[in-house]
Amino acid sequence: MPAQQHIGVGLVSVGWMGRVHARAYGAVRVHYPDSPAVARLVSAADVSDDARAYASEALGFARTTADWREVIADPEVDVVSICTPNFLHREVALAAAAAGKPFWIEKPMGRGATESAEIARAATEAGIVTSVGFNYRHAPAVARARELVRSGALGPITNVRVSLLADYSADPRGALTWRFQTGLAGSGVLGDLLSHGADLAQYTVGSIEEVSALTERFIRERPLPTDAAAGHFSLGAESGPTGTVENEDYAALLVRFASGAVGVMDSSRVAVGPHAEYALEIYGTLGSVRWDFQRLNEPQIANSREGYRTVMAGPDFGDFSRFQPGQGTSMGFDDLKTIEAQLFLRSVVEGRQLAPSASDAWSAAEIVSAALRSDESRSWESVARVEGSTTLDL
């Protein structure tokens, strides 16, 4: 086995997703023993004393700090994981790029297309590789769907359906956190969930060129949070002051692909019932494929002679064999992030973009931007093209 390069990792924000990143780096060594890189957890930043203690004692970071700038400046930190709330993404990413340090950032990368473009351009100018948290594209079932499309097995693609329905904000007692404020989050469910759908659609079928959309806020007031660390599922005070929800709870899009295919997408953060119903359906003249994250390892495939059959993901599906020996034993969410982590580390060592890139995130942000313009104009809007290295056609 060739010698492995040790990569020093810095983490900014030790919340749920920061902890997922840290675990994923460690899991790369287990599931990809032939990886050209081994991650070393060097420094983690968080303003919370408890989070810093967890980073040190549970995750194994060598040191911690309350100031994320110290992570960027640390000479032993080679790459940076950016898991902050949206309103800090730009500042941290630009600092990492200025320091010449590749970064793995969560989506939405910026609070809209303008910030996303700025981050992507900074990465390109710095000559660094990047990674963005589009983890659903790494599901082995999605890898098979992409193979079926790109090989022509489904025939010319006619139409696509993407639906991302969740209930994390369905309770009107849910606290008015930063996610509901345009100045802090940017868009609502469009950036939070439908950006995943845009990436899935483009990664499997091809670029989206035009959008017609509508959005709605169903819960317009929420109680103010009682805790500064309030998150997705935190409740506000039962009686007390409330604030205005500024961004959308629901979005629906009609889209046109460059290939001539058409599609429909919708997403909700207030749907009562589905916890994480993230579905992708691709229809062609010779067959179709359907996948739902809730049935992560069970895509359905149909051809022109027979209806759907459920096909259990197995060793010939994407990176499945890195995690399980055979069909019937399931993979999970953290495994998708491990795939993402190893793609990022390989990108760094090999000096080529293999992980979802900052330009991929910019592309998804342009679809969100076009949807918001369409909602306002009540007309079709073109999706702007982006610059830089994307992985949509790798």
From TrEMBL:
Per the database record, which ranges form the GFO/IDH/MocA-like oxidoreductase domain?
143-290
What is the protein's name according to its record? Answer: Gfo/Idh/MocA family oxidoreductase
Cite the Gfo/Idh/MocA-like oxidoreductase N-terminal domain residue spans from the record: 8-134
Q: Give yes or no: UniProt keyword NAD.
A: yes
- Record-linked Gene3D superfamilies: Dihydrodipicolinate Reductase, domain 2, NAD(P)-binding Rossmann-like Domain
- Entries under Pfam families matching the protein: GFO_IDH_MocA, GFO_IDH_MocA_C3
Which N-terminal stretch is annotated as signal sequence? none
UniProt-listed InterPro entries: Gfo/Idh/MocA-like_OxRdtase_N (IPR000683), Gfo/Idh/MocA_oxidrdct_glycsds (IPR050463), GFO_IDH_MocA-like_dom (IPR055170), NAD(P)-bd_dom_sf (IPR036291)
Q: Name one GO molecular function term.
A: oxidoreductase activity
The UniProt keywords, alphabetically, are: NAD, Oxidoreductase
Give the originating organism. Answer: Labedella populi
